Amino acid sequence: MQPKPQIGNLPVYQPGKPIEEVKRELGLDQVIKLASNENPYGSSPAVKEAIQAELSQLSLYPDGSAVELTRALARHTGVQDNQIIFGCGSDEIIALITRAFLVPGDENIMADQTFSVYKSNADIEGAVSVEVPLVDGTHDLSAMLSHVNTKTKIVWICNPNNPTGTIVSEKELTAFLDRVPGHVMVVLDEAYYEYVTDSSYPNSIHLLSQYSNLVVLRTFSKIYGIASLRVGYGMGQPEVIRLINQVREPFNTSRIGQAAAVAALDDQDFVHECRTKNTAGIAYLQNEFKRLGLASFPAHGNFILVDVGRPSREVFELLLQQGIIIRAGFAKYPTYIRVTVGSQTQNETFISTLEQVLRLEKAQL
Question: Taking every annotated instance into account, which residue ranges of this chain make up the domain Aminotransferase class I/classII large (predicted)?
């Protein structure tokens, strides 16, 4: 069988190593996973109650239109019901956007070190990906704008950017949006939106009413702590959301996922508590990196990209042997590792282990 020619060399997405696999491979009893930017505090107790209540309905299909969740999210965000689409994680919304809008030969623009799913989905549709270098780990919106032409269909902006953790401000974003032609969709990926505390961060919901070509992506996988249930969403103008919905598969979010997301939205005290702890965790890790003489990018999500001064995969393997899973292998940052901000205990264990690993590597040089 012959696949599409454009997927012949398409890399398979590599998620963070599972805890169970590391325990089995290395014979470890305790493993800390700081690789996938999951919430170390889990999810709201209300989520668990909602899941329990849905268990008696497992034989029934979910609501294909996610009506209750749509209404809850519309109330929470202030957008209209017809401005929302749900997916199996925001990853699926990305795939649906490329399916709906890209044809072979179209161009889409992204940073040269950002969430890899933009490019992989564009590749599947035969589109050309224009990758623009980051500047100090941040999207260079002026340079991205200079690459916009009549073939450009989509510009992807990951804010905060994964893996660098940097943000573009509302002032920078609106100046960019003011100059982007109307035929170009701007997708603002805000998977880590709820973690950001910087006052310059864009109020993207407000911007939706000003820019008809803007689509905003968010997820329940991060601060809401229900990554395993795969619920993400997109928001935009009704006509744009309708077009994306036309290529969406039916029943793409589960009954349990929808119920859990409604309950998660309802518990904003839990979100606030997680944000506060995350902010403290960032400060602790950054201070420790400074003590160890390691440079890191400003962190606005729940992860930090830090330069360990040697090949990151070597450090990954040494940390893995000690039961610490982090992320490495970023092409533009070969000596950097990305670490999720964990609980205070997890953070302290990571720093202690990292210090031992770096000391061991230095002794071997």
Answer: 30-353
Is there a contact between 276 and 194 (Cβ–Cβ < 8 Å)?
Answer: no
CB 163, CB 117: distance < 8 Å: no
Do 28 and 132 share a structural domain? no
Domain of residue 24, residue span: 5-42+269-364
The tokens describing 54, both together, are 């849905």
Residues paired with residue 154 on neighbouring β-strands, in sequence order: 108, 185
Provide DSSP, 209-267.
TT-TTEEEEEESSSTT--GGG--EEEE--HHHHHHHHTTPPTT-S-HHHHHHHHHHHH-
How many Cβ atoms sit within 10 Å of the Cβ of residue 103? 10
Q: What is the pLDDT of residues 117-173, one digit of tens each?
A: 999 999 999 999 999 999 999 999 999 999 999 999 999 999 999 999 999 999 999
Question: Which of the pair, 22 or 310, is modelled with greater confidence?
Answer: 310
Question: 305 and 333 in contact (C-beta within 8 Å)?
Answer: yes
Total domain count, the chain: 2
Using alpha carbons only, what angle is made at residue 100 by residues 98 and 102, rounded to the nearest 5 degrees? 50
The four Cα atoms 35, 40, 43, 48 give a dihedral, to 10 degrees, of: 90
Give tens-digit pLDDT for 206-238.
999 999 999 999 999 999 999 999 999 999 999
The answer on 253 and 132 residing in a single domain is yes
Statement to judge: residues 94 and 153 lie in one domain:
yes
Are 240 and 333 in a shared domain?
A: no
CA gap 87, 92 in Å, rounded: 5
| pLDDT band at residue 8 under the 50/70/90 scheme | low
Both 211 and 235 in a single domain?
Answer: yes
- 6 token code pair: 């454009």
CA dihedral 33, 39, 44, 47 (to 10 degrees): -70
By three-state DSSP, how is residue 158 classified? strand
If 0-12 CB within 10 Å is exposed, 13-18 middle and 19+ buried, where does residue 365 land? exposed
The last residue of a domain, from among 266, 294, 314: 266
pTM of the model: 0.93
